[in-house]
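Quick log. Single chain, no ligands specified.
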Amino acid sequence: MTERTPVVIVGAGTCGLAAACALRRAGIDVRLLEREDVPGTGSRATLLWPLGLAVLRDLGVREDAERRGLPLDALHYHLAGGRTLRTTVGAENEALVLAQHATDALLEEALEAAGGRVERSAHVSGVTPGPDGVTVKVDRPGGTELIEAQWLIAADGVGSTVRRLLGIDFPGTTLPARYLAVDGAIDGDLAPGAVHYFLRPAGPMVVAPLRGGTVRMGAPVPDGTELSEATVQRVLTERGGDGLVLRRLDDITTFASQERVAATLRHGRCFLVGDAAHTHSPIGGQGLNLGLQDVANLTWKLAGVLRGAYTPDLLDTYEPERRRAAEQTVQNTHRFARMFTLGPRPARVRNAAWRGLDATGVLRRHFVPLLAGRRVAYPDVLPGGPARRARGLPAPGERPPGGAPPAGTGALRLVTRGDAALAAAGAHLAARHPGRIAHEHRASGRGFVLVRPDGFVARAGRTTADLDHVATLAAGLAPAPGGA
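-> predicted structure:
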């Protein structure tokens, strides 16, 4: 039997669930397939930075996430000799510590509320792309099903079955260190609301708080390390000091870290998101946020194409935009990993340099925004050609100052300021492009910003003449008459 659907999503982890939620909220039918028969457990990724939190906000689960998680107020760097550097995160770089299984549970609840569900025990064994769609073969305990979809989203992790079936290479390297991951309770001098980085001569260690007095501890360890309470206590003592005592061990594992970006993030009508598209060192807590931004980038475009609001050419922008973000993140986390795993002598130099950076405020002004994703910017590849940058305004592909508005209807938001003629021209432009541009005017300020549904700037300018760039973009986004 063959079923037909607009979108098939493979993998019901955080990214697959978020993609399904976003599309269902936009009125698009999806099939979400997961090979495991029960949801995953364990904290896994725990840190949500502003761009990840913005996705949860747009999916209607951010308030619940904040009730279940802990706000991150500071980063504490514990150096040799008992010196600790304390860097506040600040409201502009707000972050939340939340176990990944809790995030997934919230998203699954939201998906069910939107009329969707996870189809478990569904193993994808074949993917056949075609010019107008893709056929997915699904093996279940009760038999085999063929699904014909217009589009496919692969969110099935680092070992992606879909990526392998499509023959997409996953170039990169496996880092030499294995990482110990521990969930449990630790007694000691660990300030709440902070992620603690221990940078001592015995080696690095990270401790992040979770709800209920539980923490996640991570540290690079040698191959063959015994997974036991004694091992955890030894690492705590050697790298954190005698004051840290393991009170309860809930979960312990090790994993290898890789640095890879898929050779292509799109194969015809198939897209890769999350760990299926890229993977990197866990230091800095970037992975989940990077994957959620893949979802935010792709789903507004895909929903708009399926609704007939945008030309399918818009989907061509997913690859260059998200590849740049992935490569930037892999490069940054590579530097973080090298910086945190230095030997004793270079570590002393690093610690001395960090004391200077902290004293001058550089850590807070530059390093924290880097972790928060504020430095990610897209190339200007939207239809209609590149636009001229207006001095004093964000460039296309950057984030607007003050953060992004909620995603809303999926239209681009044209915000004009001050000038009445600019407001009238903006309203006229939006009226010519319903479903693609929504207009609002604010009395204060001057100029305009066109913000994409995923929170990045599409165009910005100061005059009615500059609005020609918006008109050109809107025309480039419009599907051909009779097209889909």
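Residues 199 and 316 are 43 Å apart (CA to CA).
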